[in-house]
Amino acid sequence: MMTRLAAALVLAPGFAGAAEIELATRIDRVTVYPDGAVVTRQGKAELLQGASQIVLRGLPAAIDPASIRVEGQGRMAGGGGAFSIGAVDVRLAPGEAKPVLDAVIEGKLTALRDEKQVLAGRISAIEAKRATIERFGQTGPDKLGPDGKALPVADWPAVFEAIGTALVQVHEELRGVRARAADVEGEIAALERAKPQPGRPGAPKRDVAIAVEAPAALSAEFTVTYRVGGAGWTPQYEARLSTGGAGGKPSLDLLRRAELRQRTGEDWADVALTLSTTRSAGGTQAPELTPVQVMFFEPPVLYEARPMARAAPAPMAAARAKAEADAIAEQSQKAAAPVAAEAQTAQIEAGAYQASFQVPGRATIPQDGSSRTVLLSRAQAEPALAARIVPELEEKAYLEASFVHDEAAPLLPGIVALHRDGSYIGRGRIGLVAPGDKVALGFGADDKLKVTRAPVRRRENEPNWLGQTRTDLREFRTVVKSLHAQPVKVTVTERIPYSESSAITVESLPAQTTPPTEKQVGDKRGVSAWTFDLPPGAEKEIKVAYRIKWPGDREVTYAPQPGPGPQPMPRPLN
After folding, report:
1. Is the pTM of this model over 0.70?
2. Does residue 81 form part of some domain?
3. Are residues 127 and 181 in the same domain?
4. How many structural domains compose the chain?
5. Distance CA 358, CA 343 (A)
6. pLDDT tens profile 198-254
C-alpha cells in the first residue's frame, strides 16, 4: 500500500527535539519558462518511528520559498507505509569554503624550488673556487718555484695568464648561475601570485527541513519542486524557402528552436526538460486604476529667510533622476546569438492558456550561463509568393512569402534566419503569431523586377494678395517591369498626405491616379496599395496625383506619422 501526501509551504521557527535525517536528492526534471524555471528533485530516506525531520541541503539561495512543494510516498515490508508531512522550514545557510588546488601550478613550484636549492649549492661552490684562485694569485713569484724557491722570471707571464684565465672563467660561470637563479626566483614569485586564493565562503545556500511523523520505521520517497530565477529560454527560428523554379510549387520549412541559459547555482545534469510559454514571474492580475483629481496649479511657497530649505530638494531630485536613468539603462540591456540546433523535435502540448514543449530524451544544462539550443518543432507550408514594392522609399522589389500558422502553439517573438533556394540572405523578425494567423516573411530583393519612379508634375502657386489660397499639386509615375519567365504577383504601396485640420484640404486627382485595389492599407491613413499579376516580360504603370490647399498666409510641413511596429525612415516628399 502506498500513500502520497503533499504539503504547502509553512514557515516554522524550528523542530526542536526531532531527529534529523539527511535527504540526498537528484534533479529529475526541469520546466523552463522565458523568465525562470521550476526544478523537481527526487530522493529517498529511511524514516524512524515517531517525529523526525528530513533535511535537504544546498539548494540555491535564489529559490522562491513560497513555491516549494513536497510530496512523499512510503512503503513498509509488511504492508502499509502511511506517514504525514508537516511544516516545511526554509533556512538560509552560509556557503562552504571550497579551496581550489591547481596541480599543474603546484608541480611547477616544487620543481622550481628544487632547482633553486641546486643553484644555491653551485653558487657556493663557484665562489669557493674563485676565493682559492684569488688566494693563489696573491702568492708572490718568489715562492712559486720548486721547494718554495723563486720562480724563474721567464715563467712569470705564463703564471699570470693562467690565473687571469681561471678568474675570467669562474666569473663567467658564476654570472650564468646567478642569472638562472634570479629567473627561477621570478618564476616562483609569478606562480605564487597565480595560485588560487585560499578558500572563502561561497554563495549562501538554502536548506529545507521537512517535518514528518511515521507510525513505524519505513522507506520513503520524496519529490521536492521549487521555482528558481536565473534561467530562461528565448525563441529562434529558421525559414528555408524554395521558390520552386519555373513551373514548380514553392515550399517553406519553418524550424522553431529554443536557446536555453541558466545561472541558478546548480547543474542540470541528465534531466527531463520541458519548455513552457508561460511567464512565471510576470503579473498575475490586471492593474487597478486609481482616481485622478484635476485642480488648479498652486506654485510652491518659497521663504527667503530659509534658503537652505529651498536648496535641499536639488540633491534628492538629482539622485532620483540618476536612479531612474540607471533603471532604464539596465532594462535596455539584452543578449542573443544564433546557436546550432539539436536534431530532434519536441512534443507540443497546447492548453487553453499556455503551450509547452517536451524535449525528447534527457538534457544537460550547465550553470555557467553557456547556451544550449534545442529544436522544438518543424513545420512545412506551401506559401504564397508575392513581390512587395515601396517605390517612394526604395526603387526595388522584395520577395515576400506568406502562410498560415497552423500549429497548436503560438509563435513567440524572435529572430528568424532566412534562406532562399539554399542561400542564406539575412535575418528578420517574427512577432507574436497565434494559431490560425497569417505570417509574412521577406526573403530579400527580387532582382528580376525592375522598378522606376519619377515625378511627372509639380505645380505650386505663390499668393499675390492677402487671403489667397495656396496650392501644391504633385504627380508621380511608377513603372514595374518583369524579367521573370513566369507570372509574378506584385503589390505596390504608395501614400499621399492626410490632414486633420479643416484649413488644409488634401484631394486625390482621380483622372491622373490609377485606381488602387486597397484605398487604405490597414489603419494607415493615406497609404494605398495596388496588387496585380505581372506576366513574363510585361510592365505595369501606376500613377499617383494629389492636390493640397491651405491659407496663403500660413506655412505647412510634412510630418511622417509612425505606424505599428518598426518603420523605415521615410524620405521627404519630392
Report:
1. no
2. yes
3. yes
4. 4
5. 14
6. 545 566 788 899 898 888 888 889 999 999 988 889 999 999 999 987 667 899 999
